[in-house]
Write a structure and sequence with these properties.
- This protein is α/β, with parallel strands linked by helices.
- The protein contains 5 helices and 7 strands.
- The protein has a single domain, classed as 3-Layer(aba) Sandwich (Rossmann fold).
- Helix 4 packs across helix 5.
- The radius of gyration is 16 Å and the shape is globular.
- The model has no long low-confidence stretch (mean pLDDT 95).
């Protein structure tokens, strides 16, 4: 089974639409800030498209994702970068994430409170416009230097992470 969590009104073929608010694309109502209504080890793939920035406790959500997913399940997370204007434009955004944020879920040293059990397979940061090209060049040299020094000058757009569940 594949889940489009926080789908809103965006139906994705082959995915079960899950959201807190009923609408045309929603197949199942669920609060992503609570226990998810799925059996342990029952999900093969999850899409979180512009959702995690709305979640109060991302660690709690990821513990639930780990519980419901099979080993090596694929999880795709799409969210605005913290320096993107889109990250701050929506007053319902309560999380603002970095290119390195999902690394936290790989670390054994913090697994006692974030849950762990994930591997980041791919990460991508998008840029737009002429100024974005300058940001892209700095980012290619060093993502850390870009985020620490340049991201609010040469603003990025969207982060995309592809992760795998490790059990």
């Amino acid at each position: 089974m594949k889940l489009n969590l926080g789908c809103g009104n965006k139906r994705k073929k082959g995915f079960l639409g899950v959201d807190l608010y009923p609408c045309e694309a929603v197949d199942k109502i669920a609060d992503l800030n609570d226990v998810l209504p799925f059996e342990n080890n029952s999900i093969d793939e999850i899409l979180l498209d512009n959702v995690v920035e709305h979640i109060q406790d991302i660690s709690k959500l990821f513990k639930e994702l780990h519980r419901i997913c099979v080993n090596e399940a694929k999880i795709t997370v799409i969210t605005p970068h913290f320096a993107s204007a889109a990250s701050w434009r929506d007053p319902t955004h309560i999380q603002h994430l970095s290119y390195f944020s999902m690394n936290h879920f790989e670390k054994e040293s913090v697994a006692h409170y974030v849950g762990g059990g994930f591997k980041v397979l791919e990460r991508k940061l998008s840029f737009g416009g002429v100024m974005g090209n300058i940001g892209r060049l700095i980012f290619m040299v060093s993502p850390k230097t870009y985020e620490n020094n340049w991201c609010f000058i040469f603003r990025p757009g969207t982060l995309r992470f592809v992760m795998s569940v490790v059990k």
